[in-house]
Amino acid sequence: MSIDRIADKVRASERLSQDEALELYRTAPTPLLGQLADLVRARKHPERRVTYIIDRNVNYTNVCVARCSFCAFYRPVGSADGYVLGFDELFRKIDETIAVGGGQLLLQGGHNPDLPLTWYEDLFRAIKDRYPAFRLHALSPPEVIHLSRLSQRPVPEVLDRLMAAGLDSVPGGGAEILVDRVRKLLHCYGKATADEWLDVMRHAHRAGLRTTATMMYGTVETDEERLEHMLRLRDLQDETGGFTAFIAWSYQPDHTELAGTEATGLDYLRTLATARLVLDNFDNLQASWVTQGGKVGQLSLAYGANDMGSVMIEENVVRAAGASYCMDEVEIVRNIEDAGFVAMRRNMHYEILGGPVFRDQAVPRMLELATARADGDTSVPGELRNYPARSRTGKQLRVIDN
Ligand code: SF4
How far apart are CA 128 and CA 163, in angstroms? Predict the structure, then answer.
């Protein structure tokens, strides 16, 4: 089918097939792709609002047995650089988040064999006891699968227990590309196959949790596989309607085993625009300024994005791989308004909370992202003694501790 005919289908609100989307993705002029994506965005969000959330991206541990080849963040079990954050450290981070108007933690971490399911339950309960209104957007599908394997309990039961302890919603991390050929090449097939990732989300949606969906592109996948990823998400969204948003970001190669080069800004904008056209049953698409920088992040608003994601007080994973862009609320709002949109603060369910916080109260400027821990801090949280360790190193440490 010609590009003009496919573009007409988009204008007529007809669903694109994989072949049609691939044709557009590969051959449509970039301004046309942007125009079509902007048209679809405007249909879904006619009020010209662009949203963002104030939250903190906290990585509770960097110890991980998965060892994905694209990851610069993890440390193997027993590494001197490995850490687990203590409950008190997490409370302090929540206090700082609340002080700048935030109401949520995005809590993700490595697959640490020394943190049993009960550690997560106790942590979530402790946070909810102390901060009842605070939201926990936590544990991507591979972390849930890891906990299911570690506790030898089925995924639905793990999710039920985490929800009972305070889990509010599930982030869509760990999807990378939902095609098993790619997952095997990236050493992430073991942590979750494409079907397993989707199945956790299916169970989460059935249990009443809303989740996001992500895509990390630019490693070893083909164009067809990027499209296959989007179509698998579209199919599950048809089935459950549980995804709130889609977020694409480019692979960050620095300090990773896989290495290579980063996808360009144009590749990002074309991928984002194509996602807006293919994912016709997703309301929200986030701009990934964390990987693309503020300027391409702002341009994303003309290529299908309607959300600037998180103000993100802290970031560790992308920074470990070389990207260190930072925007506080003032800067995000400036970028949104300068692009001709109305900036609105939202929660994880994309419900509008109000206008920018800094216009109503004095909040400190955050010109640098915080890190999980100050350099050189190797402290081990005392409460870890309460939990049985699974790894040999962890067991030895617990003996020394006791
Ligand atoms: S991407 Fe996640 S699961 Fe993979 S090695 Fe890094 S921390 Fe572990």
Answer: 11
Please indicate whether residue 25, judged by its CB atom, sits closer than 6 Å to ligand 1.
no
Query: Tokens 């943190």 sit at which residue?
Result: 115
Measured in residues, the chain has a length of 402
**pLDDT one-digit tens code per residue, 64-95:** 999 999 998 999 999 999 999 999 999 999 99
Say what the pLDDT of residue 316 is.
Answer: 72
Choosing from 58, 60, 70, 71 the residue with most ligand 1 atoms within 8 A of its CB, the one to mutate for a pocket test is 71
Residue 64, ligand 1, Cβ within 6 A? yes
What are the φ/ψ torsions at residue 314 (nearest 5 degrees)?
-140, 145
- Amino acid identity of 255? H
Kindly give the distance from the C-alpha atom of residue 71 to the centroid of ligand 1, in angstroms, as a whole number.
6
**Cα-based angle 323, 328, 333 (whole degrees, multiple of 5):** 115
Instruction: Say what the pLDDT of residue 395 is.
Output: 86
Please state, in angstroms and rounded to a whole number, the distance separating the CA atoms of residues 226 and 167. 30
Give pLDDT, residue 396.
83
Q: Can you state the angle between helices 18-27 and 30-44, rounded to 10 degrees?
A: 130
Instruction: Work out the mean pLDDT of the chain and round it to a whole number.
Output: 93
Q: End-to-end CA distance of the chain, in Å?
A: 70
CA–centroid distance, residue 43 to ligand 1 (Å): 37
Helices (H), 207-249: 223-240
Low-confidence stretches of the chain (pLDDT < 50) are none
pLDDT at residue number 322: 66
How much is the pLDDT for 311?
85
Q: In what helix (H) or strand (E) does residue 393 lie, and over which residues does it extend?
A: helix 392-401
Predicted pLDDT at 318: 67
- Measured between alpha carbons, how far is 359 from 176 in angstroms, rounded to an integer? 37
Is residue 73 within 6 Å of ligand 1 at its C-beta? yes
